[in-house]
Amino acid sequence: MSENQLLIYNTLSRKKEVFEPLIQGRVGMYVCGPTVYGDAHLGHARPAITFDIIYRYLSYLGYKVRYVRNITDVGHLENDSDDGEDKIEKKARLDQLEPMEIAQHYTKRYLDAMDALNVLRPNIQPTASGHIIEQIEVIKKILDAGYAYISNGSVYFDVPKYQHDTNMYGILSHRVLDDMIAGTRELDGQAEKRNAADFALWKKASPEHIMRWASPWSEGFPGWHLECTAMSRKYLGEEFDIHGGGLDLLFPHHESEIAQSVCAFGHPPAKYWIHNNMITIDGKKMGKSLGNFITLEEIFGGTHSLLAQPYSPMTIRFFILQAHYRSTLDFSNEALQAAEKGIKKLMKAFEKIKSIKPSADKVIYSPKIMQQTIEAMNDDFNTPIVIAHLFEAVRHINLLLEGMESIKADDLLRLEEDFTTILQDILGIKAQYNDNSQHLVDGLMEMILDLRSQAREAKDWKTSDLLRDKLSCLGITIKDGKDGVTWSKN
Predict the structure, then answer these.
(1) For the segment 48-94, what is each residue's pLDDT rounded down to a tens digit?
(2) Are strands 199-204 and 154-157 parallel, antiparallel or unpaired?
(3) 20 to 30 A Cα–Cα from 226, which one of 186, 340, 361, 476?
(4) Are 285 and 272 contained in the same domain?
(5) Cis peptide before 358 (omega within 30 of 0)
């Protein structure tokens, strides 16, 4: 292969393929986002960072990328199937809030956590509840094609008929339908299905169900798999380049998406399917359903029992990038400590590049890290190899500082530029790395606001105003409200 060819492992073909977008110079990428009923945890960070890296690298190569990542705010039931309570409604009932309050609250929390991890926002971030009309239209197409049926106000996809006519169910997951049917248990409320393998396109809402919309079949809500089919088509067209998500979504979610698109539009939605592997704890997948997750807020604050200390967002990003996205990544406090040590070493060397003096003497070191990075990234976005090359460059930087090697002025300039591009633009690691800096800032601000509150209680307005004005000079705004004092950076 040419070193300039980008190879992507396509889950659909189970092999690496040369990346050739459908439209030259443009890339359409759809990634399944979170179901917003709780705080983002480490398991959410991995797909976000994985596809952020892909987004960044495709942009670096010069592609104009339209990146769409959805928010699931309705329709995702407890068992990832067609029974149980809507996950968001369940949380709303427990907290005595409206479901959309829950969705909005945790959407903001998710985005704040992703911002901290330096994950770029997608170009478009649609919500399932905002695209009910589009989902109804897709259901109509599948019904008209004869691959769905109405039962008691709900609409189900007819998996056996689809498989009989196309022999495509299992094309992504490589599962055999007969085996799936044999291993599927009968769930309460599923008697209205013709077959246990069938899945809901539209569910009639039970009387206690809060989130519901009018449809030709009943007042109800869309099926989980249908949401992504409708939203990806609306913003990327009937066929686009990359569909991504966690490996846990491969079946049934992505398999069902393909089936829906084939019946509604005549072909699968995406050319390349990319799946990141899981973060595990003691060999088990991390997730809310298993109760073994650690939220990002707990990691940043060091408040979880498995953590010996707080870890900065850049340490977490570095920890995730140290493993190839298709490999499992096992969490431990020791692994985070190693990642923290590694990123400190990397950033320390990066900051010292400016201290290197170029030499006209015999040149010993000529940097090649950009060429090496491109070769590694072109091999299915191999970030661990990129990091290994950076550490090899760190070794040379230290030798240059010690006078053991020399470097020409133009090579030194290129070393600094390449290091900056690789770290910041491709890997997304912020150059201003400061261990636990946000934790320190929060603690200092809490102390300052306590001193100001004490001054106000003592009617020492001069000290109170002085603290406020000094903070204002530093770009920090203080607001006194009925619920207490808040601060924000301008």
Answers:
(1) 999 999 999 999 999 999 999 999 987 665 455 555 667 766 766 66
(2) antiparallel
(3) 186
(4) no
(5) no
